[in-house]
């Protein structure tokens, strides 16, 4: 789930149930059948219209139970923001995105995927990779993720060196991305509510490589683009909370942007997630000197055209 500022969604009628069932079914069908149903599902998604009735059912009320309040200083413009209200459930199991009223940048306050704490459905990194087959395993060049557990932090990568690389390379564009948001690799929210050591690492890797996904997909940090990235990640990894969270946040957009998300972003997300390599399994540490266009070609990514 993704909660944005005012709280989390509450079940609000049959429209809500229909949307969950439709998206859940679509995600799992894609995961198991992938390319064979790509054209069919893309057409179905393009035909999906969010009616006013469903929209009201989803947005009719904000949960009043277990709400949290937050005030913070925006790292981009330096202004004091808040208090922002959101649900405790979203903070512990989903994703919380708050908006700076001054510069309109979006900030991730919590980035948890509720799928992970469910021990009965837990998967380790090998099982996730097996879902995508041998094609993905070939993308893990010289790195045994389960054993070596590489990290993306200020201590493990040389940001000073990356700044000297040519424009267009992964390393250079990564530093520009960080500087634009006035952040560092260490500023991601810490992983919480995950006791299993293997799953804890997967969550950590997911967060630390999130910015590289942004760069390869050429997604900005607007709310609409952030939703698209989350949906892409959810489809790639088979994480239901991530997938559904992207849809719920998308429905918080105004009608014009809702249509753009459903008709343009969503079909593109599905196509990229099905056809591309599993990006969490990419050894980004060894590709900083390569151009983003070269990596897009290598990992079968066609960037979204804004």
From TrEMBL:
A GO molecular-function annotation: 4-hydroxy-3-methoxy-5-polyprenylbenzoate decarboxylase activity
Known cofactor(s): Zn(2+)
Native organism: Onchocerca flexuosa
Name recorded for this polypeptide: Ubiquinone biosynthesis protein COQ4 homolog, mitochondrial
Class of this enzyme: lyase
Family statement: Belongs to the COQ4 family.
Catalyzed chemical reaction(s): a 4-hydroxy-3-methoxy-5-(all-trans-polyprenyl)benzoate + H(+) = a 2-methoxy-6-(all-trans-polyprenyl)phenol + CO2
Binding residues for Zn(2+): 210-211, 214, 226
Membrane topology: Peripheral membrane protein
Top-level taxon of the source organism: Eukaryota
GO cellular component term of the entry, any: extrinsic component of mitochondrial inner membrane
């Amino acid at each position: 789930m993704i909660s944005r500022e005012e709280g989390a969604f509450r079940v609000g009628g049959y429209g809500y149930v229909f949307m969950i069932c439709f998206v859940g079914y679509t995600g799992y069908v894609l995961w198991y059948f992938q390319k064979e149903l790509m054209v069919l599902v893309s057409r179905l998604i393009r035909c999906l219209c969010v009616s006013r009735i469903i929209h009201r059912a989803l947005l009719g009320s904000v949960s009043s139970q277990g709400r949290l309040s937050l005030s913070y200083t925006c790292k981009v413009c330096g202004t004091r923001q808040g208090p922002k209200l959101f649900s405790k459930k979203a903070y512990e199991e989903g994703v919380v995105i708050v908006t700076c009223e001054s510069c309109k940048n979006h900030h991730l306050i919590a980035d948890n995927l509720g799928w992970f704490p469910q021990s009965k459905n837990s998967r380790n990194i090998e099982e996730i990779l097996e879902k995508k087959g041998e094609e993905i395993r070939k993308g893990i060049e010289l790195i045994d993720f389960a054993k070596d557990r590489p990290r993306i932090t200020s201590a493990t990568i040389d940001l000073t060196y990356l700044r000297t690389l040519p424009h267009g390379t992964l390393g250079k564009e990564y530093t520009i991305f960080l500087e634009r948001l006035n952040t560092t690799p260490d500023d991601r929210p810490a992983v919480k509510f995950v006791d299993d050591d293997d799953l804890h690492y997967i969550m950590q890797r997911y967060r630390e490589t999130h910015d590289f996904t942004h760069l390869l997909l050429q997604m900005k940090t607007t709310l609409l683009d952030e939703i698209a990235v989350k949906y892409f990640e959810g489809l790639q990894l088979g994480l239901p909370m991530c997938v559904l969270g992207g849809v719920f946040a998308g429905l918080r957009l105004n009608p014009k942007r809702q249509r753009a998300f459903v008709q343009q972003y969503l079909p593109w997300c599905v196509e990229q997630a099905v056809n591309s390599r599993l990006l969490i399994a990419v050894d980004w540490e060894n590709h900083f000197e390569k151009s983003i266009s070269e990596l897009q070609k290598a990992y079968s990514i066609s960037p979204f055209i804004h």
